[in-house]
Write a structure and sequence with these properties.
The chain is α+β, with helices and mostly antiparallel strands. The protein has one domain: SH3 type barrels. The chain contains one helix and five strands.
């Protein structure tokens, strides 16, 4: 599954943009959207801004993502008997095998 997140451009440095949303700040490439500027909301996927969107659409999408997250948290609490479980250190090695072969 692919997911593009709405983020606001807060600064430009050539073809790189500083983008922010929900307390997260990072950089992305504007190679696909050279017309985007500071204050624009963009959909970001795999480190690239892929579309300029309006603020209302960005906020609506972020609200839907919050609802999905809240629902997922509730489902996790129910499936763990009403308590939230912390992932164990073993989860980092899930997937089997070691890199050495």
């Amino acid at each position: 599954m692919c997911l593009a997140l709405p983020m606001r451009i807060t600064a430009l440095n050539g073809s790189l943009a500083t983008i922010a949303t929900e307390g997260l700040e990072q950089q992305c490439s504007l190679a696909l959207l050279p017309e985007a500027g500071v204050g624009d909301y963009v959909l970001v996927h795999a480190g690239f801004a892929i579309s300029v969107i309006d603020e209302d659409e960005a906020n609506e999408t972020l609200e839907l993502l919050r609802e999905i997250s809240a629902f997922s948290d509730e489902e996790d609490a129910v499936s763990s008997g009403g308590r939230l479980e912390e992932p164990s250190g073993d989860d980092a090695n899930a997937g089997g095998g070691d890199a050495a072969g």
